[in-house]
Design a protein that fits this description.
alpha+beta, single chain, about 80 residues, about 30% helix
């Protein structure tokens, strides 16, 4: 496994990260002493998008949902406060 000092790693970070992402981990050292190991992370499988209606049967929408509070809203527009 290749080792780089901090200054080297900073100047070549993009290239080193690409290499690590492709399975070539590396070590960053400070004054010759290994400090960290950089390895690729395992990405989890992408989640399938949730479909419309996934809450069906779990919630209840009142029959007057579209008109709920309409009298209060109407009062707000018709009366000056």
């Amino acid at each position: 496994m290749q080792s780089y000092n901090i200054h080297e790693a900073k100047t070549q970070l993009s290239r080193l990260v690409e290499q690590a992402a492709h399975g070539e981990p590396f070590i960053i050292a400070k004054a010759g002493r290994p400090m960290v190991k950089v390895v690729a992370i395992e990405a989890s499988a992408p989640r399938a998008p949730q479909r419309f209606g996934f809450m069906a049967g779990r919630i209840a929408v009142p029959d007057d949902f579209n008109t709920m509070g309409s009298d209060v809203i109407l009062d707000l527009f018709e009366h000056e406060g």
